[in-house]
Amino acid sequence: MFALLAALTGATVKAQSAPRPQPAAGAQGGAAAPPAAVKRSEYLVKGAGCADCHTPHKMGPDADLKAIFAYLRSIRPVKNRVPDPVVATMTSGR
After folding, report:
1. Quick one: which of 47, 49, 73, 77 has the most CB atoms within 10 Å?
2. Is 89 a member of any domain?
3. CB atoms closer than 10 angstroms to residue 8
4. By C-alpha distance, which of 68, 52, 70, 49 is closest to 60?
5. According to the model, what pLDDT value does residue 22 have?
6. CA distance readout (Å), 12 to 20, 51, 77, 85, 93
7. Is the Cβ–Cβ distance between 13 and 48 less than 8 Å?
8. On the CB side of 2, how many CA atoms lie within 13 Å of its CA?
9. Contact, 5 vs 68, CB < 8 A?
10. Which spans in 1-79 are helix H?
11. What string of pLDDT tens digits covers the 94 residues of the chain?
12. Does 19 map to a domain?
């Protein structure tokens, strides 16, 4: 199952890092950023994985989703290691 999850993650990262078409040289737009700044920004976004959560993803086939959810259902629940909260009660001490 881990291999399936790793393969799906790798396919998603590869799809997200595919080159996008660039606008024409005479296209309207804001001021162009210096190439060094663009390269640095691209490096930071790829390294931090920002695009993993902050861009729309192409969903895979239903079989992939079913396999992922089947794996998640197979994981045993974790016991509550945090103590239960103490509930305040009124006492007739006044």
Report:
1. 49
2. no
3. 15
4. 68
5. 65
6. 15, 10, 27, 41, 62
7. no
8. 0
9. yes
10. 2-16, 35-48, 50-53, 62-74
11. 667 666 667 666 565 666 666 666 555 556 677 888 888 888 887 887 776 766 655 656 677 778 888 888 898 888 778 888 888 888 766 5
12. no
Domain that holds residue 59: 35-74
What count of residues does the chain have?
A: 94
Instruction: Give how many domains the chain has, as a whole number.
Output: 1
15 Rama class: left (phi>0) / alpha (psi -120 to 50) / beta: alpha
Q: Say whether pTM exceeds 0.70.
A: no
Dihedral sign, Cα of residue 46, residue 52, residue 58, residue 60: positive
Check residue 26 and report its DSSP letter: T
**40 within some domain:** yes
Nearest to 7 by CA among 71, 93, 81, 73: 71
Q: Would you say residue 54 lies in a domain? A: yes
| Rounded-to-integer distance, Cα 17 and Cα 58, Å | 13
